[in-house]
Structure formats: C-alpha cells, structure tokens
Amino acid sequence: MVFRVHLIFRPRKEALQFLPEQGRRVNSEDDAWKELERLEALPNLGVLNGKPSFTSKLEFFRVSDAKSVYDGTDEVEIWFPSLPSNDREREAAIAVLTYQIEASDVQLNLKFKGFPFDAHELSVKLFLPKKHKDKMYELHCDPNMRVNSEGIKAREQGGQGILELKPDVKDGLFEWDVIPEKTELVRNENATGDQSGITMRIGIRRIPQHYVTKFLFRPGVIAALACVSTFIPSVEIGDRLALTFTILLTLTGINYTSSDSLPALPYSTALDEYHEACHYLVYGVIAHNISFFLYASRRSKLCAAEPTTNTAAGTVDPTMAACVASADAPCAAASEAADVAATVASRWCRMCGYNIVVDYWILLDLDDFVMSFIFAYWIYWNFRWFAIHK
C-alpha cells in the first residue's frame, strides 16, 4: 500500500532553525536535511503491521492556514499545548512534514467466506516511535482539521477529511468499491505507554457482477437443465443418466476454474456453497430418475406375469365355447359356458388394466410432477440465497 502522510506539528528548537519562510520548502535532497536527520529533530512514523519504505523525497515547510473546529461552530487555528511566555515566536510556528510511504508485507485479516460478495477492512497501523515521544511529540488524528493550502478539506466543505482517497486510486481498485462509512483514520486502540499511534482503515467491497455471471448464473442454469431429463421416458435410463452425468462433469469443470480466482483457503466460501447446491440438485435428479426407472421395471415384470389369454387363465375363449355349445349342447349350456369364460377374462382384464393405468399415471404424471417440484424449489432457493448474500 502506497500513501502520502502529512504530519502537522510545532517543531522543536532544533528543527525550528531549519524551518524556511512561508512559501519555501526544505526537502530530503538539500544539505540541511542531513543535519535534521543527525539531530533527529523531525518526527517520523513507522508501520506497526508492515515494513515501511520511503518512495519519494521528504519535505519540511511552514504552514499558516492549519485550522480545526473544537466546539462544532467556528474554525480556529490548530491548538498545541501552550509554551512559556518567552517563546512567542514558536507559538505561531506550525510546520508540515510530508512524504510518501510504501507499506509492504502488511498483515491484513482478509476474510473470503462471503466471496464473491465479500467486503474487507484494510488496516495500516502507524505509530510514533518512542524516541520521538520522549521529545514531547504525540501522534493525534484530528477529524476536524482543515489545511486548504494542502487540499485537506472537511467533509462539510466538500472534501474527504483527513483521510482522502484520490480518484485515480479508486479507479485502480478495478473490481473493488470503497465503503465510505468504513474508511477512517482513528486513534490506535492498541497504543501503549511507549508508543502513540493511529489506524488507517479503508473499507472495500468486491464488485461481484463478473463472478455472478460466470460462476453463479451459468452453473445455476446448467444445473437446472438436469430437470429436462423428465422429457426422456423413464424406462430409457441410459439416456437420462447420460444427460445428468454430462451436466455433472460440466459443473465440476466450472468449480475447478473458479477456484483459480482465490488463494488456498481452509474454509468454504459462498461460491463453494452455491456450487455444492448445484451438485446436490443434479444428484437429486439422478436419484429421482433411478427411482422411477426401478419402479417402472418392477411394474412391467408384475404385469408380464399375469395371464395374457383366456386359455392361460384356465378357461376357453368365449366364441369357441359358443361354437362347441351349438354343436354338442343346448343353447342354454352354450350360453352358460360363454358367461363363465367371459367372467374369468373380465376379472383378469380389470386387474391388468388397473396396473396399466396406475403405471401410466405414476411414470408420466407423477414423474413430471416431482421433477416440476424439484425445479420450482431450485428457483425458490436461488431467490432466497441471493437475497441473503446481497
């Protein structure tokens, strides 16, 4: 992280002799700077949770318009502890030390559990070393400070306060958006008696549109296509399984591709949760297809075991019985034989016909009904899941 620091302070006597007149600046390339460093006359900051390095020259100059609001109404000059009466000159001498710091190896507690709807708080802890504290310097962040000459303006004046993110910095965040209410400069809660420090917090939120389209919307639609297998007859289990397993392999490929967008994590993210739900949907469709196939096979075997002719049912065809009766027996006998045969055949036809009707309703109507329920629940679950994570 690279940022520019403005330290506004009243210089000690050693630094006061090097403080230039208004409008002039002393920088780290001047010869006088070596003497300032030797005397350790200027305060400097360290990074508590990282390694600091200076990436530009340091500047030391006088400022006359540093003001603040202490009572919430009128602007007054920056207040410092009063000096002895013989130090009138130093009373009005306010200086600025500005430089650019690059903080590397910053220890950030990033939590990707909500990815791709995750938000993070980037915290850089700045502290004033004890050697400066011993020389009567304290580090304090004044949220009401204004220095118009340096572009430091309060929020009510159209500025961004004492922590400002430049537009080019925001544009360089690409897939991230700054959270204004979580971006602040506050006194370090962990400051000890030997150090005084402040914490620079920058809240950022991921812009999830790319991940939603590529890794959520697409796999969600692909997983829902598994329900199309209901249009394939349930007895053709090979075609149904071919479709669902192809979808399952596609989802697995998308899952592996999306893992490249994140570092190795010891926990599951929201994206992993959604992909697992897609897999579970396909698993449910596979179980549904197998269940109805097994039921169809069982019912077809039971129907095949039923008698398919009157002879197999233990009687004779009614028309044959009528022919025999007309030649060898009275009409009443022929009619009785025909009634017996018709009764046996009717009993089998009602049983076999009932099975056919039941199988047709279960394998077609109930199959489609259950699959429609699975699809409808998937749509409902998606609406609920996105509502929770957004």
Describe this structure in words.
One of its GO terms (molecular function) is monoatomic ion channel activity. The protein is an alpha+beta fold. It has two domains: 206 residues, Acetylcholine Binding Protein, Chain: A (Distorted Sandwich), CATH 2.70.170; 180 residues, Up-down Bundle (Methane Monooxygenase Hydroxylase, Chain G, domain 1). Helices cover 43% and strands 19% of the residues. The protein has ten helices and twelve strands. Strands 1, 2, 4, 5 and 8 form a five-stranded antiparallel sheet that branches. A four-stranded antiparallel sheet has the order 3-9-12-11. Strands 7-6-10 form a three-stranded antiparallel sheet, with no helix packed on it. Helix 6 runs antiparallel to helix 7. The longest helix has 59 residues. The radius of gyration is 42 Å and the shape is elongated. About 13% of the residues have low confidence.
Compact overview of the structure:
The protein is α+β, with helices and mostly antiparallel strands. It contains ten helices and twelve strands.
How would the blueprint of this fold be written?
Layout: E1 2-9, H1 13-16, E2 25-27, H2 31-39, E3 46-47, E4 51-54, E5 59-62, E6 66-69, E7 75-77, H3 88-91, E8 95-104, E9 119-128, H4 130-133, E10 146-147, H5 167-171, E11 176-187, E12 196-206, H6 209-224, H7 237-258, H8 270-304, H9 318-328, H10 331-389
Antiparallel strand pairs: 1-8, 2-5, 3-9, 4-8, 5-8, 6-7, 6-10, 9-12, 11-12
Helix pairs in contact: 6-7, 6-8, 7-8, 8-10, 9-10
